[in-house]
Write a structure and sequence with these properties.
With 339 residues, the chain is an alpha/beta fold. It has helices at 2-9, 20-32, 43-52, 69-78, 96-105, 117-154, 161-176, 180-192, 202-205, 213-219, 222-230, 240-245, 266-281, 292-305, 310-338; strands at residues 12-16, 36-40, 57-61, 87-91, 109-112. The chain has two domains: 2-134, Response regulator (Rossmann fold), CATH 3.40.50.2300; 155-338, Hypothetical protein af1432 (Orthogonal Bundle), CATH 1.10.3210.10.
């Protein structure tokens, strides 16, 4: 608790207000409590300060020239780089419409002028504690992503696999009609799905030929290990079933649990299809890279054997076909621009 309190006292706060006396008053209140204050005289300057400084919280007046406080807030909340920064809007009005506009813009809290010092500090401390917890969570996620990429980096043949998988899984997930939460889980799973391979010896992981039965037993543990590694992180709970079940098969012949049909979580069924396609279209020491039509033909045969969800595979065929059309269109546009 003491550590969090100390952190809350060392935050950097951006104060955006076109009235100098208002900026000075807020700076006086905040500096006296040990906060670092960065000031901006209008909305455009505020956005500029966010680009050049590490900001932990924004206090913004609503009525400002160039960009209003609502517009500043909206820009902060729609930018992935800044969307987790808490924004408190300050207004002389206690108008309900202002509050509704602020909520729509994504504001985290509101203060009414004249600003009460005790209320200001209480709200700032509360939001900063939440922000620092979020930062810690992001750092934990970053460690997991870095570990997953280091495993991928061991094998030159799997370079870029995680990024390709994450992107295609998101596209297929949307086509299948998954929820936003499932899409986010798929994006994360695309990066960390094979994180359990950290427990697989390199002699097995990088073996150019086929694995022996005993080696396969070790390899088949990686989804379970991966689930265990990611389990302590609460934000990864929706990711865990994808990690554990992305090697199951629709007919029950997969691993580690031999799940069958719709007992396999739908997001894991999406991941399976994209993972297999990426493996087929990538070169390996023991095989050439198949073309997209060749890979799809092989996968059709596997669907006929009962390995993959036929409905999701049909969506995947549509997705790959659409991507081909888009690439052709982009190529044609590039050709025209060179003329």
């Amino acid at each position: 608790m003491q550590h969090q309190f100390h952190q809350s006292l060392s935050g950097t706060i951006l104060v955006a207000d076109d009235q100098e006396e208002n900026r000075e008053l807020l700076e006086e209140f905040l500096s006296a409590e040990g906060f670092t204050v960065v000031a901006a005289a209008d909305g455009t300057s505020a956005i500029g300060q966010l680009a050049t400084n590490h900001i932990d919280l924004v206090l913004s007046d609503v009525m400002m020239p160039h960009l209003t406080g609502f517009e500043v807030c909206q820009r902060i909340k729609t930018n992935p780089e800044t969307q987790l920064i808490p924004v408190v809007l300050i207004t002389a009005l206690s108008d309900k419409q202002d509050r509704l506009a602020g909520i729509r813009a994504g504001a985290d809290d509101f203060l009414t002028r004249p600003v009460d010092r005790a209320e200001l500090l209480a709200r700032v401390r509360s939001l900063l504690k939440l922000k620092f917890r979020t930062d810690e969570l992001e750092r934990a996620e970053s460690v997991l992503f870095a570990l997953a990429r280091s495993i991928e980096g061991k094998d030159p043949y799997t370079h870029g696999h995680c990024e390709r998988l994450a992107g295609l899984c998101v596209d297929l997930g949307r086509l299948v009609g998954l929820s936003d939460e499932q899409i986010t889980a798929l994006r994360r799973a695309g990066v960390v799905h094979d994180i359990g391979k950290v427990a697989v010896p390199d002699a097995i992981l990088l073996k150019p030929g086929r694995l022996t039965e005993d080696e396969w037993k070790v390899m088949k543990q990686h989804p379970i290990v991966g689930e265990r590694i990611c389990a302590p992180l609460k934000s990864f709970r929706p990711v865990l079933p994808i990690i554990r079940h992305h090697h199951e098969k629709f007919d029950g012949s997969g691993y580690p649990d031999g799940l069958r049909g719709h007992a396999i979580p739908i997001a894991a069924r999406v991941m399976q299809i994209v993972d297999v396609f990426d493996a087929l279209t990538a070169e390996r020491p023991y095989k050439k890279a198949f073309s997209t039509p060749e890979a799809l033909e092989i996968m059709r045969e596997e669907v006929a054997k009962g390995w993959w969800d036929p409905e999701i595979f049909r969506c995947f065929e549509r997705l790959v076909g659409q991507e081909k059309v888009n690439r052709r269109a982009e190529g044609a546009a590039a050709g025209k621009s060179e003329l």
